[in-house]
Amino acid sequence: MKVKIDDLLWFGRNLDNEGIRYFDYSATGFCFLMKGKKALAHIVSDPENWNETTYGVIGSFVNEGTDYRLETLPEEPAKKFVLTEKDNTCVLFESEEEKTVCIRVLKLSEAAFGYAGLKELEIEGSLIPFPKDDSEIQDALSLSINSSLPEPVVQPSIKLEVIGDSITCGYGIEGVWEKDSFTTKQERADKSYALLTAKLLNANLSCCSWSGIGIISNYVDPETAKLPDTHWLMPGNWPYTDKSLSLRLGLEPEVWDEKKFSPDIVVIHLGTNDQSWVHGHEERRLGYVAGMRQLVEAVHRRSPKAKICCCLGIMGQELCDSVEEALKLFHDDFKNVPVKFVKFPVQDEKDGIAADWHPSAKTHAKIAKVLADALKDWVN
Predict the structure, then answer these.
(1) Rounded to a whole number, what is the largest CA-CA distance in the chain?
(2) In sequence order, which residues have a C-beta less than 8 Å from that of residue 348 and are 6 or more positions away?
(3) First and final CA of the chain: distance in angstroms?
(4) pTM above the 0.90 mark?
(5) Cα angle 139-145-147, degrees, rounded to a multiple of 5
């Protein structure tokens, strides 16, 4: 049977165009419950614009039963798919015997490279509808599964948005420093601190992240750069659903509708790339402080009920004091908005270093624990 796109549970930012729903940012995707033997998805991409190092990559995560909380996500995908075709046939799940399973499809690579869009989903079996609330659980059970199975678990109410750079994307996690060069096959958004924090808090997650991006400058060579790289900065990208994808599809970028995902907490992790430009220059540092202050206010104006946390430090702590300064300036004007800063410890080589001196999976797990602990008082 063919499954309607709207019957799936979607998470993260997604964009509809000509019957296809695109899920392009790191850790975005969809989830569904089924009883059957097979699930097959047709995923579109744009391989003609990329190569072996930059194709889009997705993963299929399978749990037996009907528990679809993020905290039960397996540590490894059942299957990974490199999107080398314009229309990719992806067998998400297959079993000789009928099983009741939860299947979650995640974008493992980032939005800067090959995109992913669900064109069609087919299952050999029956779809188990998601209950909208506790009162609908028994209806879901009677419609699709026998009453001896576990009850479907209702999604958590906490919504977490993370705005960040390559670290948030899970850049290079499966690579090794000084041995491997970056490829999207090494990216593991499911092992990034962002998703791991959401798992620890049992929160819904939405990411807006892009490698090399900054607030006043993208990454530049700190020793030779004469000008900042301002061609694609987060303040001009974050307000839109998926600006890059829209431009690739020949569409005018649409402003992201906050009503689709109204976050309780927004985490901003930006500055690692800005510090390559600031590089000890006070006037540049002040520009970063002003830019961060403005971004925090923009986040507040779009999501006025959200608590805002800024964090930095994994790949360098030069701008940590500047982030705190920006938050103080914001708080002076908006005293009723809960804000905090979390200073991350610099990655330790004992924990391994991933491709291009990025954090390893072990470091991401440690940082996720630090961030989750800092946010717990905002969740409970």
Answers:
(1) 68
(2) 363
(3) 41
(4) yes
(5) 75
Token representation of residue 177: 């420093």
What SS3 class is residue 333? helix
Q: What is 277-322 written as a DSSP string?
A: HHTT-HHHHHHHHHHHHHHHHHHHHHSTT-EEEEEE-TT--TTHHH
Bridging pattern class, strands 358-359 and 204-209 = unpaired
Residue range 6-48, pLDDT digits in tens: 999 999 999 999 999 999 999 999 999 999 999 999 999 999 9
Q: What SS3 class is residue 331?
A: helix
Question: What is the distance between the alpha carbons of residues 92 and 103, in angstroms, rounded to a whole number?
Answer: 8
* pLDDT one-digit tens code per residue, 72-93: 999 999 999 999 999 999 999 9
CA distance 340 to 327: 8
DSSP one-letter string for 158-204: -EEEEEESHHHHTTTTTS-TTT----GGG--GGGSHHHHHHHHHT-E
